[in-house]
């Protein structure tokens, strides 16, 4: 079975966690898109009643197209359940790297307001140490990004701005740039998150430390539910 099929399996399992009356955070990316599809079906076919806060313009457009009722933080202080993907999930801690899809800021705002953050993925995303497979995305203001790179280099990062295929800078939904950062080894994710945040010009990092409450991971061994610890 393909990675995409495993993503779909994890997503459809997690979509069943949504109950009538919930405020639901909708993640971004190819795995989260399967959740949005599944919730659109549950809304239409089963009459499931919920409202959703999307974490990107792309997810908002997908949800709107499926008739999912959307809401904002103007009307809801907390989110009952957010279901989102990740680029790396550390075994045991469920600390994450997110943001290869470029939506890390909105994803983190929604995650921080959520009572439950369920991460869905195919099993290729599980790692023993964060940073083993992917670069760490860091969202920064466009002004002075070169200075921000130099500050991040003091913490051991090799950072370069993400570009689109045409060579132009990738710009996030919030109008910011993404620096993709290579760290030799991420030993203490909480400390690194603090260090990155201390740099002027950084808006947010793609390290999600202590935020995920559960992960649903699918692979050749079947589907597993992982909790912290
Ligand atoms: O953090 C993200 C977007 O900012 C995504 O959740 C992450 O990139 C995983 O994407 P995919 O489900 O396509 O593998």
From TrEMBL:
The keyword Amino-acid biosynthesis does not apply. Its EC number is 5.3.1.6. The active site is at 107 (proton acceptor). Pathway: Carbohydrate degradation; pentose phosphate pathway; D-ribose 5-phosphate from D-ribulose 5-phosphate (non-oxidative stage): step 1/1. It catalyses: aldehydo-D-ribose 5-phosphate = D-ribulose 5-phosphate. InterPro entries: NagB/RpiA_transferase-like, Ribose-5P_isomerase, Ribose5P_isomerase_typA_subgr, Ribose5P_isomerase_type_A. Substrate binds at residues 28-31, 84-87, 98-101, 125. The keyword Lipid metabolism does not apply. It comes from the Bacteria. Keywords: Isomerase. Coiled coil: none annotated. One of its GO terms (molecular function) is ribose-5-phosphate isomerase activity. Catalyzes the reversible conversion of ribose-5-phosphate to ribulose 5-phosphate. Homodimer. Belongs to the ribose 5-phosphate isomerase family. This is Ribose-5-phosphate isomerase A.
């Amino acid at each position: 079975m393909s990675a995409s099929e495993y993503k779909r399996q994890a997503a459809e399992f997690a979509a069943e966690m949504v109950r009538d009356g919930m405020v639901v955070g909708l993640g971004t990316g190819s795995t989260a898109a399967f959740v949005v599809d599944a919730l659109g079906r549950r809304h239409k076919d089963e009459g499931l009643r919920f409202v959703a806060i999307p974490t990107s313009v792309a997810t908002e457009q997908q949800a709107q197209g499926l008739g999912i009722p959307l809401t904002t933080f103007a009307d809801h202080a907390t989110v009952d359940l957010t279901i989102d993907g990740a680029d790396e999930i550390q075994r045991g801690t469920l600390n994450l790297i997110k943001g290869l899809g470029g939506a890390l800021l909105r994803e983190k705002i929604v995650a921080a307001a959520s009572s439950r953050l369920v991460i869905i993925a195919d099993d290729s995303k599980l790692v023993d140490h964060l940073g083993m497979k992917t670069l760490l995305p860091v969202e920064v203001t466009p002004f002075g990004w070169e200075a921000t790179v130099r500050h991040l280099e003091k913490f051991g990062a090799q950072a370069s701005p993400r570009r689109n295929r045409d060579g132009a800078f990738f710009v996030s939904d919030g109008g910011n740039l993404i620096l993709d950062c290579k760290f030799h080894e991420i030993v203490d994710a909480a400390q690194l998150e603090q260090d990155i945040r201390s740099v002027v010009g950084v808006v947010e990092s793609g390290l999600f430390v202590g935020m995920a409450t559960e992960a649903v991971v699918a692979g050749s061994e079947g589907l597993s539910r992982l909790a912290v610890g």
